[in-house]
Amino acid sequence: MEKKEYVIHIKLDNLLKQKRMTKRELARQADIRHTLVWEMCHNKTKRLPLDKLAKICSVLQVDIHDVIELVERKESNLM
């Protein structure tokens, strides 16, 4: 049986568009670095402190699953 591999996908960019909020405004309201928000929106973040994620969820009034999801890694992404 083939073992599936998963990656975390951050859905923050689409969520901000739905909420009509800029990255800078979210960073200001959540009191977090703008660069962290940018990295999350572009799925470039390597480390995501849980307290920052909680602040983002609080400001956007969403659940954690609205911000991040676990998706199966595509074979083209394996290398």
From TrEMBL:
SUPFAM superfamilies: lambda repressor-like DNA-binding domains. Signal peptide: none annotated. PROSITE patterns: HTH_CROC1 (PS50943). Gene3D superfamilies: lambda repressor-like DNA-binding domains. Residues 12-67 form the HTH cro/C1-type domain. InterPro entries: Cro/C1-type_HTH, Lambda_DNA-bd_dom_sf. Pfam families: HTH_26. This is Helix-turn-helix transcriptional regulator. It comes from Aeribacillus composti.
